[in-house]
Amino acid sequence: MAESVPRIVIVGGGFGGLAAAKALKNAPAQILLIDRTNHHLFQPLLYQVATSVLTPGQIGSPIRNILREQQNTTVILGEVSGVDKDKQCVVVSSADRAAVPVPYDFLVLATGVTHSYFGHDEFKRFAPGLKNLADAVAIRNRILQAFEQAEAEEDPSRHRDLLTFVLVGAGPTGVEMASAIAVLVRNTLKSEFRRINPESARIVLLDMAPRVLGSFSEDLSEAAKKRLEKLGVEVRLGHGADQIDAGGVMVAGERISSKTVIWTAGVAPSPAGKWLNVNTDRAGRVRIQQDLSVPEHPEIFVVGDTASLDQDGKPLPGVAQVAIQQGRYAGKLIHRRITGKTIPVPFRYFDKGNMAVVGPGFAVLQSGKIHISGILAWFAWAAVHLQFLATSSLRISVFLQWVWTYLTGQRGSRLIVNHCGAERAKPAVEEGPRTSEMLLPQ
Amino acid sequence: MAESVPRIVIVGGGFGGLAAAKALKNAPAQILLIDRTNHHLFQPLLYQVATSVLTPGQIGSPIRNILREQQNTTVILGEVSGVDKDKQCVVVSSADRAAVPVPYDFLVLATGVTHSYFGHDEFKRFAPGLKNLADAVAIRNRILQAFEQAEAEEDPSRHRDLLTFVLVGAGPTGVEMASAIAVLVRNTLKSEFRRINPESARIVLLDMAPRVLGSFSEDLSEAAKKRLEKLGVEVRLGHGADQIDAGGVMVAGERISSKTVIWTAGVAPSPAGKWLNVNTDRAGRVRIQQDLSVPEHPEIFVVGDTASLDQDGKPLPGVAQVAIQQGRYAGKLIHRRITGKTIPVPFRYFDKGNMAVVGPGFAVLQSGKIHISGILAWFAWAAVHLQFLATSSLRISVFLQWVWTYLTGQRGSRLIVNHCGAERAKPAVEEGPRTSEMLLPQ
């Protein structure tokens, strides 16, 4: 390729970054996509990995595999730590190398969000959040480990805490995970334990908001809540978690004892705003213009969850569809600009609708004036999610897994793998040996 | 169940322990199976997880799921740290609890092996071994990471070390892994990189023995070696690794620079011999009698890789078939003893044959006087391995994956997931910023 070809750097291989790269497929440019993992993650199904339905490999595909036929694009595993707007370069570190500046002519930042503890970072130790595959595997380990500990525990009075699961935050992730845990205990784990009854597990879904799925209409929130309760989930609204520690959660003066608390509440944007040193909204997302560029920097675009853009007086939501449409727009705009074509009309988000699943065969769907809940919405949910998986092999694999799980109740991967060597059995000091007669079935 | 029913404790949920538990299916007994993981691992395919062909979930099944219909059996996740032969109990620790003694009337130890560095434990840091799923995922991360680092590395002189893979030990694991890496670089990764050619990777298979697959006949060793060389693997025999460090391996005075060295050489038995304080062979395996019990302790059985038993003047090999047949025998013997039936004839291993795979569509098979190599042996290998997977869903899943990989070259899971937060990019200190022009495709 000639030296004169423009250099386009895309940071992030999520929905936004990948859409931008694909939109530049035929552009006469050198495209460099940088991500700190080697895979594009299908985040909407991450809760299914955390609850053992799918394996990590079913929702993650190597980015370079997805883009292997796009010859103008190089994929790099690396961590971006800053942007120099004046010199037009991003600072990239990768394994065991010093940070190097990488020059760009156009920059697309699609760096997403991480989970946020709203200023309570001390909760993190006790209530892990769910944003990447390592998080999902860690949460899967914790949920399955709780049942294992209860089964190994000869004192029935200690079963209660171990079999109580608290989800803090009743947005889509909290609702989907709560219902998936409810089905896990009722179907999958049935008849596998001898000393405990997994069905006796208590699953509590908390939110300070007055309803679940706050981004949906009230009738759908109500339908979801009813369904959750039917599945055995205890829904507690109007109060958040005041305190989270090793023993459980404090809510409105009441203590819920639990060994497994999961944070499904909030997200915070990536540091893109700090790197660029530009205007952000209150949450820290970069305020972008109608063409998705940063004010005074027509060569820098910010897309997806880490960007802030109003449409019809309301901020766009942090969902995959916004990221995909914005990434695609930014890619097309850059392509047109470098080929001297007319610039497209300002970006406009087309809302295809919003869905959340509540257990097998039940979802809520809101699209314009259409509000439906139940099996039809679930089929729509399944079809859309399969369609948006990155490769056809994943589509087949996830589809077969869902059919299998539906028919047999068996899940894709219920492994507990201790990857770090630290979690393993650390016996607590206790007063003298205890009798262990109860360790054997009576 | 009545208190008077005998208590049988089985330690280990591998091939031996699981076979013992299943053989006791209808026994009037309380059976407790203890394992330090929650899953039965199909070790013969572990190298396929390490080389991205299969996902961890395809070769690991929860032990309690396999035994869910066996009502007389309780499965416990716990770590055994000792045996008290006089008081007839094993000492078990499980997560956050003090060690407790668990009483038994019969004990089956099926605690397997771990990898051994033959007294060179300092090699461990630089050359990870392969025994469990966490090992396999760590090795997968390292192999894939090497290609990522090379692609991110702008200095071509540093590509050589990153693209050199050394396997220390040319037994079945070393041979199978070397051929799987060779196929990975030639088929799967083809056309995904822009700055490096994965096909240029150097794969070195070392062994101090004069031939590969020393447990097979000489003609099959020779056939495997030829096949490895055809796949592009450099086979170096007659010298082991004298030294392994961060920069590579020293072999017979020559330095092979490599960032990825994998230990596929030796195994050491579990501490069962120390727990029992009984006679062991030189390797540390417990010397057992013809009925698989420990001398003077007819209630204690040791089976599988951690046991030492001669047959026709030769020690039995440490393979899955021996463990399965021994486990089954021990289970049956205990069942007969507690129901007052006659004791079976002494244990005798029936050798069904030995197989190793060398790349797609090629295996070596030795069974009695039958020695074959090639595609027929591969079909036998595939059929046997599918047959011995723990559940029918895994059989289907692994079969479909193999067909898919064969047809498309695509593998099951090429994720790099940093589970422990420590491996991530630690930039080395370097002298000033380097130019990064080469970071973009030329």
Share of residues in helices of chain A? 25-40%
Rg of Cα set of chain A: 23 Å
What structural class is derived from the secondary structure elements of chain A?
Answer: alpha/beta
Placed side by side, the strands forming the largest sheet of chain A appear as 5-2-1-9-21-20
Largest interface: pair, residues per side: A-B, 91 and 89 residues
> What is the straight-line distance between the termini of chain A?
75 Å
Fraction in beta strands of chain A: 15-25%
Assembly type: homodimer
- Stretches with pLDDT under 50, minimum 5 residues of chain A: 422-442
Please count the beta strands of chain A (DSSP E, at least 2 residues each). Answer: 27
General description of the model:
The structure is a homodimer of 442-residue chains. Chain A is α/β, with parallel strands linked by helices and 442 residues long. Chain A is built from eleven helices and 27 strands. The first copy, chain A, has helices spanning 15-23, 46-50, 63-66, 133-152, 159-162, 172-188, 218-230, 272-276, 320-338, 375-388, 392-408, and strands spanning 7-11, 30-35, 39-41, 60-62, 73-77, 79-84, 89-93, 100-103, 106-109, 113-116, 164-168, 202-207, 233-237, 243-245, 248-251, 254-257, 260-263, 266-269, 286-287, 293-294, 297-302, 307-308, 310-311, 314-315, 354-357, 363-367, 370-374. The first copy, chain A, has a six-stranded mixed sheet, covered by helices on one side. A four-stranded parallel sheet of chain A has the order 13-12-11-17. A three-stranded antiparallel sheet of chain A has the order 6-7-8. In chain A, a hairpin with a 4-residue loop joins strand 6 and strand 7 (89-93). In chain A, helix 1 (15-23) packs parallel to helix 9. The longest helix of chain A is centred in the N-terminal third of the chain and has 20 residues, at 133-152. The first copy, chain A, is globular and about 70 Å long. In chain A, 52% of the residues are buried. Mean pLDDT of chain A is 90; it is low at 422-442. Chains A and B meet through strand 5, strand 7, strand 8, helix 4 and helix 11 of A and helix 3, strand 5, strand 7, strand 8 and helix 5 of B.
